[in-house]
TrEMBL record:
Residue ranges occupied by any AAA+ ATPase domain in the UniProt entry: 49-227
Molecular function terms from GO: ATP binding
UniProt-recorded name of the protein: Mg-protoporphyrin IX chelatase
The keyword Hydrolase appears for this protein: no
PANTHER family: MAGNESIUM-CHELATASE SUBUNIT CHLI, MAGNESIUM-CHELATASE SUBUNIT CHLI-2, CHLOROPLASTIC
InterPro entries: AAA+_ATPase (IPR003593), CHLI-like (IPR045006), ChlI/MoxR_AAA_lid (IPR041628), Mg_chelatse_chII-like_cat_dom (IPR000523), P-loop_NTPase (IPR027417)
Pfam family of the protein (one): Mg_chelatase
Keywords, comma-separated and alphabetical: ATP-binding, Nucleotide-binding
This protein's record includes keyword NADP: no
Family: Belongs to the Mg-chelatase subunits D/I family.
Lineage: Bacteria, Bacillati, Bacillota, Negativicutes, Veillonellales
Amino acid sequence: MQEFNVTKIELNHLLIGVNMKRRDVFPFTAIIGQDMMKLALELNVINPRLGGVLIQGEKGTAKSTAVRALADLLPPRKCIDGCRYHDDPNDKSNWCDECSEKYKDVEPPVKLQSMKVIELPVSATEDRVVGTLDIEAAIKTGNKSFEPGILADANRNILYVDEINLLDDHIVDVLLDSAAMGINTIEREGISYSHPARFSLVGTMNPEEGDIRPQLLDRFALSVKVTGEQDPEKRAEIIKRRLSYETDPEEFVNQWKDEQEKEVSRIERAMDLLPRISISDDMLLIAAKIAIILKVDGHRADITLIKTAETIAALEGHLEVSKEDIRKASRLALPHRMRRRPFEEQELDWSEVDKVIDDEA
Ligand SMILES: Nc1ncnc2c1ncn2[C@@H]1O[C@H](COP(=O)(O)OP(=O)(O)OP(=O)(O)O)[C@@H](O)[C@H]1O
């Protein structure tokens, strides 16, 4: 990136400016506390294959503020120029049909584009989500004419659903299918069209407003519960920062520029480090034992626990996963994976988990 001779934040703003006009958003680093929520969001940026995060909590606890603020920390990445799904030039096996055809014998043109937070409104129609096929054009010309939807925008980005527990069942099904396959397939009157749709799903919800479907809950790699700050000093600081932001957003964002830049660098360093993180067999055994004592369903929990611990190690800047990484990862990857009886609000007994972590050699 050095050759551009601009800071990462400036570059991000430059790139965002090209793609869409954005108002100044409340800076991620100005959010007080809520460390687990912020960590879970950053882990999904560092490791887009982690599998998303569900943030649950009472009203007004900075859930949506944090997700929207994440947009300013998202690093630029290489995309095929002109591709509607921002295909990765280095990941040929996941290219869309158009790029696979167009660039089968020539190198694709490459551009840098910032990752984005794509919002899926809870009221979105299925057509808006999956896109639309022009059946008439297909019949007349034999060519498939496809108008991309939200899932096209979401490819290689973060897909954010506020009030995800209120999403219509058929939209939930569409999301589950795409999340499982990494592909969005549209079928209308015997004509079908597919495009890549790999995204990190971020959902926020207030459990007082209704439950989330268990199949959807299970799709999230991580889950976090947030509650309002109880320390009066911190609460007062939240008011102060919000008022200061509302008085002059541009000035407030400017004041937090250095902090934001540091965070972007931390994320980028972690992304560089992630492929080099190693994990010992002892740590794998700890993960397996935790899964057994917690009686989780299947093996997804242990695998996610390890992926999360690896990503935490990268963020912490060490090359080998430690017990502390596993401990922190367990708080994010396990709470929503306990086997529950209906109507049972079960709290995890962390002492059991910690015993497994600490007893291991
Ligand atoms: N920890 C915090 N640090 C900074 N600002 C905060 C914090 N908690 C809440 N706020 C402020 O409180 C307001 C409400 O936050 P936000 O809109 O993100 O709530 P929410 O959790 O998404 O809930 P809702 O679903 O009601 O919108 C925002 O103005 C936000 O800036």
